[in-house]
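For reproducibility, we list the full input for the C2R complex.
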Amino acid sequence: MGAAVGIVMGSDSDWPVMKDAADVLGEFDVEVEVDVVSAHRMPTEMIDYGREAAGRGLRVIVAGAGGAAHLPGMLAAVTPLPVIGVPVPLQHLDGMDSLLSIVQMPAGVPVATVSIGGARNAGLLAARILASGTDDDAARLREQMVTFQEGLRQVAREKGARLRAQRSSRVGFGA
Ligand SMILES: Nc1c(C(=O)O)ncn1[C@@H]1O[C@H](COP(=O)(O)O)[C@@H](O)[C@H]1O
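The corresponding predicted structure, in tokenized form, follows.
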């Protein structure tokens, strides 16, 4: 089977952030494709990518960009697929510029925006979208997601236990 999720970014300089989306989807055995597609620097290829994505078998697009981040919104304008936008922090403005560029979409053109640098959550959201289907693969993904959530719960419980143990071992004033 071909890739179910397309992970694209405005530049290869976004990869250290965007890699987290590919990694977590790998943990869920979801096939991905990765590429650089820039709305600003290669507008015609970007439009082609968005227009052809569904026909090529992709089911979700994760798009990351920094600064004036038009890529996720422009892809959402030309594809019927769900688009998840990842604001990539650059040296200036800490990613707030990118966050606002991605999140403030006009009515009718939704982009599911994650936090600044939140590519791992973007990958997890893509997995959840795939898991909402009615096919066998969706059922497998749902099961895997429940196991993953159980792992999170376990880690949080251990954090609480550590904190409680730390406090109970302290004696004296201010403990
Ligand atoms: N925001 C966009 C778009 C776009 O939205 O089309 N294309 C490139 N970029 C961003 O420019 C930043 C700097 O890129 P370079 O490192 O290549 O100079 C990257 O974060 C990229 O996502």
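The helical segments are 15-27, 43-53, 71-78, 96-103, 119-131, 136-168. The chain is about 50% helix and 15% strand. Both points were considered when choosing residues for closer inspection.
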